[in-house]
Amino acid sequence: MMASSYSAKDEDGHITVSGPGGGTLRNKKPENTAFKQQRLPAWQPILTAGTVLPAFFIIGLIFIPIGIGLYVTSNNIKEFEIDYTGDDTSSPCYNCAKNFSWNNTKSCTCTIPFQLDQPYESNVFMYYGLSNFYQNHRRYVKSRDDSQLNGNIDSLKKPSKECEPYASIDNKPIAPCGAIANSMFNDTLTLFYNDPNGTSVPIPLTSTGIAWWTDKHVKFRNPVGTNSNLTAVFQGTVKPVNWHRPVYELDTDPENNGFINEDFIVWMRTAALPTFRKLYRIIQKKNTMAPTLPRGNYTLVVDYNYPVRSFEGRKRMILSTISWMGGKNPFLGIAYITVGSVCFFLGVVLLVIHHKYGNRNNSANISN
Amino acid sequence: MIKVAHIGVGISGQEGMQAVLSSDFSFAQFRYLQRLLLVHGRWSYIRMCKFLGYFFYKNFTFTLVQFWYAFFCGFSAQTVYEDWFITFYNMVYTALPVLGMCLFDQDVNDRWSLYHPQLYAPGQKNQYFNKKAFVSYLIHGCYCSLIIFFIPWASMNDAVRNDGKDIVSHPSFAFLLQTCLLIVVHTQLSLDTYYWTAVNHFFVWLSTIGYFAISVTMYSNGMFYVFPSSFPLFGAARNTLNQPNVWLTIFLTFLLCILPVVAFRFIFIQLRPTINDKVRYKMRTEELTAPAPRRLLRRRSTRSGYAFSHSQGYGDLVTSRKFLIKRPLKMTALFTQTDSSIFQNQPQHYRTIAEEPQSP
């Protein structure tokens, strides 16, 4: 009985089993395929001088012109910045900052004269900047309700828990809820050009086209009610605590009112760093050949509503032109030039090392 | 009695299966031990060390970026990456390439491993993963994380898109950092992989392209309509990736992380080549010049010393006098016979494994 079903293992590990009927083979040997025997065809790169050295030189040679291009572009961008926090007694906004109170019914106005040394061509973008304002704080970033902002009626009446404690007042839901909406920037900045005759010409500021297209048209929607009147749709909700006007009175233009108000959308896009700037208005370029903002004297009139002194923040207004790489940022240009030069220098060093010591690798004497 | 060992190997045979049952590896003949150690054991050690080192490196890089961000978010534990990226990073985006490297990587092929047994020495001396290696991975991860955070930080400081709109919002910054991190980590894996099979290529490209595909899908209209609260980073991908300064930042970050590694490795290969480097170099130059090796037919060993009483035996072989014919060696001395020296009834002779002298 036993003899009829032994398994003989020959020298190759090949097990053959002869069953009672005879002739059935069970092969325990792994298949001799390339995959199972780890013989798959493969590319085996090694770092030779022929690949590394040219790579370093080419990278060095590519980066330096790119860096120079970036640096020159950045230098050609014109930017002007005014800090109007008003913490210094000599600052025009000092009184507004000092006398700030949450119960102010009348807003405080301060006027800051400034001068542009160069004419600004093409579209000029006006930003407001805040410093030491941590829009990236975890509890702050969570404090919003995206379905409410997307126009969901249920979320409008019952904001999510994430908005606490800015979700409701006296059992009435806040629209829009959350700390981000509550702390919306509400200074009003206007510009005037003092032409050589002495008259103050207001500069037209465009307040639409400042938010991302995807935000304005998809992410933020006004809730749709039976009545097209926004006031009626937002019935039953209250405005956030620190707002002066409710959300349906943010702008007279119905395309820019309610949740789709672009200033609101821009504010709700939380910044990643504590010092940031957000697009406030656009000064469109003129149809004539004249520069958008000619050289000369200007006045910035600020409706000072936004308190920053309590957390040692700073407020500023920035006027800037734009190029294909964005705003004025010399860092990328300088970084590319530096890295390109270091790369090129390193390539030379590696070439010297290879020339002097490269034979060690070729030695046929692999030691015993 | 041996009480401590790295592995236990049992020989299965007519003495019974007890050794086989209590061992880590078992086979039928002693000669397989050579291949087990010098080829498979060595590969296994190298793969394991590379895997561990790479895993620590990529997670150090990933986590330390969050740490640097803490200084800029008021230490409020705000994540710099988006939540879904954190979920997918280890499970989806970096899982397959590491698996590919761990399964298929070979620094030298099996023939060369047998020809140069000194290659086995690093495993015995624990050279590839020890405290010093771990600290070097930590420092490397730290350096890469500094680059991955601070270069985009400096580049995005007060930056805007080329139509004037915002780009330093939290979703865009997160997306930029994620992209930089993934490209750097995948390229580091590519530098670590020495044996690129089709599977490795597939895994690496799949993961990289998959990252972009998944991100664009997650940030698209469809997902946002279905789950607005879960995918709040809607619009980040398309509004960030169409900016030249974003791509320039990514490129700069990637090069700043990878070039030092390449330079270091190149310098070490030139100044202090290890046996591995030398053999790989030799293998490459020989493969370019040597003809394709003739595959040895596996044939039954006719020189077995074992006597089996239950099978027919080798009486026919002995009387046919086949084994007296000397077969001339056709191959060059470089590719020595893969059969062991038992084949020639010579004692097994290994080269002594000693530390390579430091100066030439």
UniProtKB/TrEMBL annotation, chain A:
Positions in coiled-coil regions: none
Main location per the UniProt record: membrane
Membrane topology, as annotated: Multi-pass membrane protein
GO cellular component, as recorded: apical plasma membrane; endoplasmic reticulum; Golgi apparatus; transport vesicle membrane
Chain segments annotated as transmembrane: 46-72, 331-353
Region (Disordered): 1-29
Single GO BP term: phospholipid translocation
Keyword entries, A-Z: Cell membrane, Cytoplasmic vesicle, Disulfide bond, Glycoprotein, Golgi apparatus, Lipid transport, Membrane, Transmembrane, Transmembrane helix, Transport
Cellular localisation: Apical cell membrane; Cytoplasmic vesicle, Secretory vesicle membrane; Golgi apparatus; Membrane
Transport keyword on record: yes
UniProt-listed InterPro entries: CDC50/LEM3_fam
A Pfam family that the UniProt record links to this protein: CDC50
Record-stated family: Belongs to the CDC50/LEM3 family.
Official protein name in the record: Cell cycle control protein
Protein's organism: Haplochromis burtoni (Burton's mouthbrooder)
